[in-house]
Amino acid sequence: MPVGTQGTVKAVPQDTLESLGAEIILGNTYHLYLRPGHEPIRRMGGLHRFMSWPRAILTDSGGFQVFSLSSLRKVTDDGVQFRSHLDGSSHFFTPEHSIDVQIALGADIVMAFDECTEYPADRARAEESLRLTMAWARRSLDHFRAHSRDVPWFDPKVSRAQSLFGIVQGGMHRDLRRQCAERLVEMDLDGYAIGGLSVGEPRELTLEMIAEVLPLLPKDKPRYVMGVGYPDEIEQYARLGVDMMDCVLPTRAARHALLFTSEGRLNIKNKQFAEDQSPPDPACQCPVCRRYSRAYLRHLVQAGEPLSATLNSIHNLAYYLGIMQRVRTSLDPAPV
Ligand SMILES: [Zn+2]
Fold first, then answer.
1. Of 100, 114, 246, 281, which residue is the catalytic one?
2. Is 87 a catalytic residue?
3. Is 60 a catalytic residue?
4. Which pLDDT tens digit goes with each residue over 22-64?
5. What is the span of the domain harbouring residue 278?
6. Rounded to the nearest whole angstrom, what is the distance from the C-alpha of residue 301 to the centroid of ligand 1?
7. Could you tell me if 12 and 248 are in contact, meaning their C-beta atoms sit under 8 angstroms apart?
8. Whether residues 292 and 214 fall in one domain
9. pLDDT, tens digit, 9 for 90 and up, residues 221-265
10. Which H or E run contains 166?
């Protein structure tokens, strides 16, 4: 899933995302709640209509951004008090409030409110954090079941129902991860995510946690690993049985002139590309690789041209979506 933090996948227009084959994008509850606000978006018919995106949208719960961006956080059993990173204003987020915001946005997939356990976290800290995440998952579910159709445009004949996913936390402690997964599965949610990974831990540990949790999650429901990863990681996790992943890497790296290609990573800023007439990735069929040279992409970076971010992002997204397409094809039974 390409990440569309503020109701936009940075630098890439919606019609381009559609033509690249993106079926679903991610929106960030924390950002959209602060600006422009979920109520204005609700009044305008929801996020799909506001940003003109007819395909699926998953919203995160806001928890991760509250913990990573805001200041002066105060966590209690009830929720999290925090100050906006935009203007310092004070806000209080509870599981119920996070679900209300995501319902107002009209997300197809709503995420339960969780506490993303930092790394490293000792056992006592991870246990405390897990206790909160479990209690908040239950409250998220109860509130979601009671209110998920409370939007003015919801028409059971034409509107898609919203789904709620739970998030497995537990730090890097295998037994806590298992305990969390088992408890969430008992709640019979629509899908399950593994969160709190890619937070600074070594990659072997990320893989170990995924391998520990994945077999405990139902195979007939989507299994989602949040916030990963590099191209080889997403392929590795998909082959383990992960169905969904999101990552800012393809678009963020693109804005820093880093291209992912079949020949490895290219820093397109490098002088060696100054007169390189070859396509960014000779094996790629994306609109950028079919039309432009490495030399031109390098020039755009050097000149600080905004088109640079757009073209680099389109290629990187095409590369990531292409990996997933290949994995899907290789897993599906051969067409008759
Ligand atoms: Zn390309």
1. 246
2. no
3. yes
4. 999 999 999 999 999 999 999 999 999 999 999 999 999 998 8
5. 259-331
6. 17
7. no
8. no
9. 999 999 999 999 999 999 999 999 999 999 999 999 999 999 999
10. strand 163-168
